[in-house]
Write a structure and sequence with these properties.
By secondary structure, the chain is of the alpha+beta class. It is built from 2 helices and 13 strands. Keywords: Cell wall, Membrane, Peptidoglycan-anchor, Repeat, Secreted, Signal, Transmembrane, Transmembrane helix.
Length: 214
């Protein structure tokens, strides 16, 4: 009577997956059997489940060799930062990792720009395909130089106006003062009148004096 010994080779990548052909051995009850660990490219042996050697019995036996998949470099993830016209406004960020590993990209704070939208998956897993994540930014509004209010000119104009007004007032004051220099005061008018009257009287007195003397 023979018993079949099934030698399975499996992987623990996500779920148990067969990564190599089974090896089936036959023998009579009581005879010895042995199974072998395989070298499988891209995998590393982890453990064995069951007896790697023993004797054939009247019951089927299974020996399972478990392997883990070796890390495999995935393609790069590139994060780009552009404006709404597609122009580059910041350096790309390139990330590397093994296939199946997680990745994440980050939004940047860029001076003069405001984040608008992202194109692509900001996070996910590395694969054997290159992936690109594009962050789009809108340029902040800037005041047009010609539309700016020139306060310095307004101040200058105001100062010139004040200076002009002050000059006008000063000129009027000077004219007023100048006129006052040539107008006699009330006392001066009275003195002038008396002097004229006295002179007239003196002339008349002299006239009559010489007339009577003749």
């Amino acid at each position: 009577l023979k018993q079949i010994i099934t030698h399975k080779v499996l992987s623990t990548f996500i779920v148990y997956i067969q990564i190599s052909e089974d090896v089936v051995k036959s023998g009579n009850i009581g005879e010895d059997y042995t199974t072998e660990q395989k070298e499988i490219e891209g995998y590393t042996f982890k453990e064995v489940q069951g007896d790697t050697s023993g004797k054939f019995t009247d019951q089927a036996q299974t020996v399972t060799y478990v392997y883990t998949k070796n890390p495999e470099a995935g393609s790069d993830i590139t994060a780009k930062y552009v404006d709404t016209e597609g122009n580059k406004i910041s350096e790309d960020v390139v990330k590397s990792g093994n296939i199946g590993e997680d990745y994440t990209t980050e939004q940047k704070e860029i001076t003069g720009y405001t984040f608008k939208e992202v194109q692509g998956d900001v996070s996910g897993k590395f694969t054997d395909q290159a992936q690109t994540v594009t962050y789009v930014y809108g340029q902040n509004d800037e005041t047009v130089p010609g539309e700016e209010t020139d306060t310095s000119k307004e101040t200058e104009s105001s100062t010139e106006k004040q200076t002009s007004d002050t000059s006008s007032v000063s000129q009027r004051s000077d004219i007023s003062n100048s006129g006052s220099k040539y107008l006699p005061t009330t006392g001066e008018k009275a003195t002038f009148g008396l002097s004229f009257a006295g002179l007239s009287a003196l002339v008349l007195a002299g006239y009559y004096y010489f007339k009577n003397k003749k």
